[in-house]
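Customer escalation, tier 2.

The customer says the design service returned an amino acid string that "doesn't look like it belongs to this structure." They asked us to rerun it and document both sides in this ticket. The original C-alpha coordinates are below, unchanged.
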Protein backbone atom coordinates (compact mmCIF):
# COMPACT_ATOMS: atom_id res chain seq x y z
CA UNK A 1 0.00 0.00 0.00
CA UNK A 2 1.34 3.43 -0.95
CA UNK A 3 1.72 6.22 1.56
CA UNK A 4 -0.54 9.14 0.73
CA UNK A 5 1.26 12.46 0.42
CA UNK A 6 -0.23 15.93 0.42
CA UNK A 7 -0.64 17.49 -3.00
CA UNK A 8 1.60 20.51 -3.61
CA UNK A 9 -1.26 23.00 -4.02
CA UNK A 10 -3.70 23.06 -1.12
CA UNK A 11 -7.12 24.64 -1.18
CA UNK A 12 -9.58 25.04 1.68
CA UNK A 13 -13.00 23.46 1.19
CA UNK A 14 -15.95 25.85 1.40
CA UNK A 15 -18.40 25.59 4.30
CA UNK A 16 -20.49 22.46 3.68
CA UNK A 17 -18.65 21.59 0.45
CA UNK A 18 -19.32 18.04 -0.71
CA UNK A 19 -16.44 15.62 -1.00
CA UNK A 20 -16.90 15.14 -4.74
CA UNK A 21 -16.88 18.89 -5.30
CA UNK A 22 -13.68 19.24 -3.24
CA UNK A 23 -12.08 16.34 -5.10
CA UNK A 24 -12.85 18.09 -8.37
CA UNK A 25 -11.47 21.47 -7.26
CA UNK A 26 -8.38 19.97 -5.62
CA UNK A 27 -7.59 17.99 -8.78
CA UNK A 28 -8.03 21.12 -10.94
CA UNK A 29 -5.82 23.21 -8.68
CA UNK A 30 -3.06 20.59 -9.04
CA UNK A 31 -3.51 20.20 -12.81
CA UNK A 32 -4.82 16.66 -12.45
CA UNK A 33 -7.98 15.12 -13.77
CA UNK A 34 -10.59 13.99 -11.26
CA UNK A 35 -10.07 10.40 -12.42
CA UNK A 36 -6.30 10.65 -11.88
CA UNK A 37 -6.67 11.94 -8.36
CA UNK A 38 -9.26 9.29 -7.53
CA UNK A 39 -7.06 6.48 -8.84
CA UNK A 40 -4.23 7.93 -6.71
CA UNK A 41 -6.55 7.58 -3.69
CA UNK A 42 -7.53 4.07 -4.77
CA UNK A 43 -3.84 3.17 -4.73
CA UNK A 44 -3.90 3.39 -0.96
CA UNK A 45 -7.32 1.81 -0.56
CA UNK A 46 -8.19 -0.66 -3.34
CA UNK A 47 -11.57 -1.33 -1.73
CA UNK A 48 -12.78 2.05 -3.07
CA UNK A 49 -15.13 1.95 -6.08
CA UNK A 50 -13.71 2.75 -9.52
CA UNK A 51 -15.87 5.84 -9.88
CA UNK A 52 -15.42 8.82 -7.49
CA UNK A 53 -18.11 8.19 -4.89
CA UNK A 54 -19.33 10.59 -2.21
CA UNK A 55 -18.71 9.53 1.36
CA UNK A 56 -16.24 6.78 0.45
CA UNK A 57 -12.91 8.45 1.04
CA UNK A 58 -13.20 11.57 3.22
CA UNK A 59 -10.16 10.59 5.29
CA UNK A 60 -8.01 10.17 2.15
CA UNK A 61 -9.18 13.50 0.74
CA UNK A 62 -8.33 15.16 4.04
CA UNK A 63 -4.83 13.63 3.81
CA UNK A 64 -4.10 14.72 0.21
CA UNK A 65 -5.67 18.14 0.77
CA UNK A 66 -3.70 18.79 3.98
CA UNK A 67 -6.90 19.19 6.04
CA UNK A 68 -7.37 18.34 9.69
CA UNK A 69 -8.61 14.78 10.33
CA UNK A 70 -12.41 14.58 10.41
CA UNK A 71 -12.95 17.88 8.55
CA UNK A 72 -15.74 16.50 6.34
CA UNK A 73 -17.53 14.74 9.18
CA UNK A 74 -17.48 17.91 11.32
CA UNK A 75 -18.70 20.02 8.39
CA UNK A 76 -21.54 17.59 7.70
CA UNK A 77 -22.59 17.49 11.36
CA UNK A 78 -22.46 21.29 11.64
CA UNK A 79 -24.74 21.66 8.62
CA UNK A 80 -27.43 19.10 9.44
CA UNK A 81 -30.94 20.50 9.32
CA UNK A 82 -32.65 20.01 12.68
CA UNK A 83 -35.77 17.86 12.81
CA UNK A 84 -38.15 16.37 15.35
CA UNK A 85 -37.16 12.80 16.08
CA UNK A 86 -37.63 10.11 18.74
CA UNK A 87 -34.11 10.63 20.06
CA UNK A 88 -35.12 13.98 21.55
CA UNK A 89 -38.73 13.23 22.45
CA UNK A 90 -39.93 14.63 19.10
CA UNK A 91 -38.45 18.08 19.68
CA UNK A 92 -36.27 19.82 17.10
CA UNK A 93 -32.67 18.71 17.46
CA UNK A 94 -29.66 17.89 15.31
CA UNK A 95 -29.66 14.14 15.82
CA UNK A 96 -26.90 12.55 13.76
CA UNK A 97 -29.05 9.48 13.16
CA UNK A 98 -32.18 11.13 11.73
CA UNK A 99 -31.15 14.56 10.44
CA UNK A 100 -30.06 15.12 6.88
CA UNK A 101 -27.86 17.77 5.36
CA UNK A 102 -29.69 20.35 3.24
CA UNK A 103 -30.08 19.83 -0.51
CA UNK A 104 -27.02 20.31 -2.70
CA UNK A 105 -26.66 23.73 -4.27
CA UNK A 106 -23.98 25.51 -6.27
CA UNK A 107 -21.65 27.72 -4.22
CA UNK A 108 -20.82 31.35 -4.92
CA UNK A 109 -18.19 31.41 -7.69
CA UNK A 110 -16.15 34.16 -6.05
CA UNK A 111 -15.93 32.15 -2.83
CA UNK A 112 -14.78 29.18 -4.94
CA UNK A 113 -12.14 31.38 -6.69
CA UNK A 114 -13.94 31.22 -10.01
CA UNK A 115 -14.59 27.47 -9.92
CA UNK A 116 -17.78 25.47 -9.68
CA UNK A 117 -18.31 24.09 -6.20
CA UNK A 118 -21.27 22.29 -4.68
CA UNK A 119 -22.24 22.77 -1.05
CA UNK A 120 -24.77 21.38 1.38
CA UNK A 121 -24.86 24.06 4.02
CA UNK A 122 -27.39 25.52 6.40
CA UNK A 123 -27.90 28.70 4.42
CA UNK A 124 -30.09 30.06 1.69
CA UNK A 125 -29.36 30.89 -1.94
CA UNK A 126 -27.25 34.00 -1.23
CA UNK A 127 -23.57 34.53 -0.45
CA UNK A 128 -23.74 37.44 2.00
CA UNK A 129 -20.04 38.19 1.57
CA UNK A 130 -20.22 38.80 -2.16
CA UNK A 131 -23.95 39.64 -2.35
CA UNK A 132 -24.43 36.93 -4.94
CA UNK A 133 -27.53 34.81 -5.62
CA UNK A 134 -26.59 31.28 -6.69
CA UNK A 135 -29.59 28.99 -6.96
CA UNK A 136 -32.09 27.73 -9.54
CA UNK A 137 -29.44 28.03 -12.25
CA UNK A 138 -29.18 31.79 -11.71
CA UNK A 139 -26.03 33.67 -10.83
CA UNK A 140 -27.03 37.26 -10.06
CA UNK A 141 -25.45 40.03 -8.04
CA UNK A 142 -28.13 41.35 -5.69
CA UNK A 143 -26.08 44.10 -3.99
CA UNK A 144 -28.54 46.76 -5.24
CA UNK A 145 -31.45 45.25 -3.29
CA UNK A 146 -30.66 44.95 0.45
CA UNK A 147 -33.92 43.02 1.05
CA UNK A 148 -32.25 39.90 -0.35
CA UNK A 149 -29.46 39.86 2.20
CA UNK A 150 -31.90 40.66 5.00
CA UNK A 151 -34.06 37.70 3.91
CA UNK A 152 -31.01 35.44 3.69
CA UNK A 153 -29.94 36.37 7.23
CA UNK A 154 -33.48 35.81 8.54
CA UNK A 155 -33.56 32.41 6.87
CA UNK A 156 -30.26 31.41 8.50
CA UNK A 157 -31.19 32.77 11.91
CA UNK A 158 -34.85 31.84 12.25
CA UNK A 159 -35.71 29.19 9.67
CA UNK A 160 -32.78 26.79 9.34
CA UNK A 161 -32.68 26.40 13.13
CA UNK A 162 -36.22 24.99 12.82
CA UNK A 163 -35.26 22.57 10.10
CA UNK A 164 -36.44 24.70 7.18
CA UNK A 165 -34.24 24.47 4.14
CA UNK A 166 -34.61 25.57 0.55
CA UNK A 167 -36.27 22.29 -0.39
CA UNK A 168 -38.07 21.06 2.72
CA UNK A 169 -41.49 22.36 1.63
CA UNK A 170 -42.20 25.43 3.75
CA UNK A 171 -40.69 27.99 1.37
CA UNK A 172 -42.45 26.26 -1.53
CA UNK A 173 -45.76 26.59 0.30
CA UNK A 174 -45.17 30.31 0.91
CA UNK A 175 -44.19 30.77 -2.75
CA UNK A 176 -47.36 28.97 -3.82
CA UNK A 177 -49.48 31.46 -1.84
CA UNK A 178 -47.52 34.44 -3.15
CA UNK A 179 -47.88 33.29 -6.75
CA UNK A 180 -51.60 32.92 -6.27
CA UNK A 181 -51.76 36.43 -4.83
CA UNK A 182 -49.67 37.84 -7.69
CA UNK A 183 -52.10 36.44 -10.28
CA UNK A 184 -54.86 38.86 -9.25
CA UNK A 185 -53.29 41.65 -7.26
CA UNK A 186 -49.69 41.66 -8.54
CA UNK A 187 -46.68 42.28 -6.31
CA UNK A 188 -45.86 46.01 -6.50
CA UNK A 189 -42.42 45.71 -4.89
CA UNK A 190 -41.21 43.54 -7.77
CA UNK A 191 -41.14 46.40 -10.28
CA UNK A 192 -38.85 48.41 -8.01
CA UNK A 193 -36.69 45.34 -7.40
CA UNK A 194 -36.45 44.55 -11.08
CA UNK A 195 -35.52 48.17 -11.90
CA UNK A 196 -32.74 48.14 -9.29
CA UNK A 197 -31.31 44.86 -10.56
CA UNK A 198 -31.77 45.04 -14.31
CA UNK A 199 -32.77 48.60 -15.13
CA UNK A 200 -36.13 47.45 -16.55
CA UNK A 201 -39.62 47.21 -15.02
CA UNK A 202 -41.83 44.35 -13.91
CA UNK A 203 -40.27 40.89 -14.39
CA UNK A 204 -41.69 38.76 -17.19
CA UNK A 205 -42.24 35.97 -14.71
CA UNK A 206 -43.11 37.48 -11.32
CA UNK A 207 -43.80 33.98 -10.01
CA UNK A 208 -40.15 33.01 -10.25
CA UNK A 209 -38.68 32.12 -6.84
CA UNK A 210 -35.82 34.57 -7.35
CA UNK A 211 -38.15 37.57 -7.54
CA UNK A 212 -40.32 36.63 -4.58
CA UNK A 213 -37.57 35.28 -2.31
CA UNK A 214 -37.67 38.13 0.30
CA UNK A 215 -41.46 37.84 0.62
CA UNK A 216 -41.34 34.03 0.67
CA UNK A 217 -38.97 34.12 3.65
CA UNK A 218 -41.20 36.58 5.54
CA UNK A 219 -44.35 34.53 4.84
CA UNK A 220 -42.55 31.34 5.94
CA UNK A 221 -41.39 33.01 9.16
CA UNK A 222 -45.00 33.86 10.03
CA UNK A 223 -46.57 30.58 8.89
CA UNK A 224 -44.14 28.37 10.79
CA UNK A 225 -44.30 30.35 14.03
CA UNK A 226 -45.83 27.89 16.53
CA UNK A 227 -47.94 30.60 18.21
CA UNK A 228 -49.32 31.87 14.91
CA UNK A 229 -50.07 28.34 13.75
CA UNK A 230 -51.89 27.52 16.99
CA UNK A 231 -54.00 30.66 16.58
CA UNK A 232 -54.66 30.05 12.90
CA UNK A 233 -55.72 26.44 13.39
CA UNK A 234 -57.76 27.02 16.54
CA UNK A 235 -61.08 25.19 16.44
CA UNK A 236 -62.94 28.45 17.27
CA UNK A 237 -62.56 29.52 13.63
CA UNK A 238 -64.36 28.18 10.63
CA UNK A 239 -62.25 27.14 7.68
CA UNK A 240 -63.38 30.24 5.81
CA UNK A 241 -62.02 32.41 8.66
CA UNK A 242 -58.77 30.49 8.69
CA UNK A 243 -58.34 30.99 4.94
CA UNK A 244 -59.05 34.68 5.44
CA UNK A 245 -56.33 34.97 8.10
CA UNK A 246 -53.89 33.22 5.83
CA UNK A 247 -54.76 35.60 3.01
CA UNK A 248 -54.29 38.59 5.29
CA UNK A 249 -50.76 37.38 6.13
CA UNK A 250 -49.90 37.59 2.44
CA UNK A 251 -51.53 41.03 2.15
CA UNK A 252 -49.47 42.34 5.09
CA UNK A 253 -46.21 40.85 3.87
CA UNK A 254 -46.56 42.23 0.34
CA UNK A 255 -47.82 45.52 1.80
CA UNK A 256 -50.76 45.49 -0.56
CA UNK A 257 -52.95 48.57 -0.88
CA UNK A 258 -55.49 46.66 -2.94
CA UNK A 259 -58.65 45.41 -1.18
CA UNK A 260 -58.47 41.91 0.23
CA UNK A 261 -59.60 39.24 -2.19
CA UNK A 262 -60.10 35.55 -1.73
CA UNK A 263 -57.09 33.36 -2.32
CA UNK A 264 -57.92 29.87 -3.64
CA UNK A 265 -54.49 28.57 -2.55
CA UNK A 266 -55.24 29.63 1.04
CA UNK A 267 -58.53 27.65 1.03
CA UNK A 268 -56.76 24.57 -0.31
CA UNK A 269 -53.91 24.78 2.20
CA UNK A 270 -56.22 25.28 5.17
CA UNK A 271 -58.32 22.31 4.12
CA UNK A 272 -55.21 20.19 3.64
CA UNK A 273 -53.67 21.10 7.02
CA UNK A 274 -56.92 20.48 8.88
CA UNK A 275 -57.23 17.06 7.30
CA UNK A 276 -53.68 16.27 8.39
CA UNK A 277 -54.45 17.36 11.97
CA UNK A 278 -57.50 15.11 12.03
CA UNK A 279 -55.34 12.25 10.82
CA UNK A 280 -52.82 12.97 13.61
CA UNK A 281 -55.63 12.78 16.17
CA UNK A 282 -56.70 9.49 14.66
CA UNK A 283 -53.19 8.16 15.18
CA UNK A 284 -53.14 9.16 18.85
CA UNK A 285 -56.40 7.36 19.42
CA UNK A 286 -55.28 4.11 17.86
CA UNK A 287 -55.40 0.85 19.75
CA UNK A 288 -53.73 -1.16 17.05
CA UNK A 289 -50.19 -0.02 17.81
CA UNK A 290 -48.28 -1.70 20.58
CA UNK A 291 -47.02 1.62 21.93
CA UNK A 292 -49.08 4.71 22.59
CA UNK A 293 -48.57 7.42 20.00
CA UNK A 294 -48.09 10.87 21.50
CA UNK A 295 -49.57 13.89 19.76
CA UNK A 296 -46.10 15.27 19.05
CA UNK A 297 -45.13 12.03 17.29
CA UNK A 298 -48.47 11.88 15.49
CA UNK A 299 -48.02 15.42 14.12
CA UNK A 300 -44.60 14.55 12.71
CA UNK A 301 -46.00 11.35 11.25
CA UNK A 302 -49.00 13.12 9.69
CA UNK A 303 -46.72 15.86 8.32
CA UNK A 304 -45.07 13.11 6.34
CA UNK A 305 -48.03 10.89 5.43
CA UNK A 306 -50.23 13.85 4.48
CA UNK A 307 -47.43 16.00 3.10
CA UNK A 308 -48.38 18.87 5.38
CA UNK A 309 -45.08 20.54 6.31
CA UNK A 310 -46.74 23.08 8.63
CA UNK A 311 -47.54 20.29 11.09
CA UNK A 312 -43.85 19.92 11.85
CA UNK A 313 -44.00 23.38 13.43
CA UNK A 314 -47.16 23.00 15.43
CA UNK A 315 -46.96 22.75 19.19
CA UNK A 316 -48.86 19.67 20.29
CA UNK A 317 -50.43 21.41 23.30
CA UNK A 318 -52.43 23.68 21.04
CA UNK A 319 -54.01 21.27 18.62
CA UNK A 320 -57.72 20.65 18.52
CA UNK A 321 -59.25 19.12 15.45
CA UNK A 322 -62.38 20.52 13.94
CA UNK A 323 -64.42 18.53 12.95
CA UNK A 324 -63.70 15.66 15.38
CA UNK A 325 -61.04 13.12 14.42
CA UNK A 326 -61.77 10.05 12.32
CA UNK A 327 -61.79 6.58 13.82
CA UNK A 328 -58.39 5.46 15.02
CA UNK A 329 -55.86 4.50 12.41
CA UNK A 330 -52.36 3.26 13.15
CA UNK A 331 -49.45 5.69 12.97
CA UNK A 332 -46.69 4.56 10.62
CA UNK A 333 -43.58 2.96 12.07
CA UNK A 334 -41.05 5.49 13.33
CA UNK A 335 -38.41 4.22 10.93
CA UNK A 336 -40.71 5.04 8.00
CA UNK A 337 -40.85 8.75 8.69
CA UNK A 338 -38.43 9.96 11.41
CA UNK A 339 -35.40 10.11 9.12
CA UNK A 340 -37.20 10.18 5.77
CA UNK A 341 -36.60 12.90 3.24
CA UNK A 342 -39.04 15.81 3.56
CA UNK A 343 -41.32 16.05 0.57
CA UNK A 344 -42.87 19.34 -0.52
CA UNK A 345 -46.62 19.62 0.07
CA UNK A 346 -48.95 18.91 -2.78
CA UNK A 347 -52.13 20.70 -1.74
CA UNK A 348 -55.14 19.00 -3.20
ZN1 LIG B 1 -32.95 11.01 15.85
ZN1 LIG C 1 -19.16 34.47 -2.08
Amino acid sequence: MQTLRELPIRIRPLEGETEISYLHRLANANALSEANLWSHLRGTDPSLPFKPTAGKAPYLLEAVGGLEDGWFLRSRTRNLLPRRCPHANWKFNTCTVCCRPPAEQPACRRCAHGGDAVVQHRAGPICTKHRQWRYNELDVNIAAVPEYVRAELALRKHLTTRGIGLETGELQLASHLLRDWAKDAGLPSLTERRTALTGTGTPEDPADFFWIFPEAVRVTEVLTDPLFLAYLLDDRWTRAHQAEYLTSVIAIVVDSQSPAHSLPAADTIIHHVNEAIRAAHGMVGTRRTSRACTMRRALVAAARTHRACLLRHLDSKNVRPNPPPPRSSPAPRTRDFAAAEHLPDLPR
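Tier 2 assessment: The sequence is consistent with the input. The CA atoms of residues 155 and 308 lie 20 Å apart. The chain is about 45% helix and 5% strand. Sent an explanation to the customer and offered a walkthrough call.
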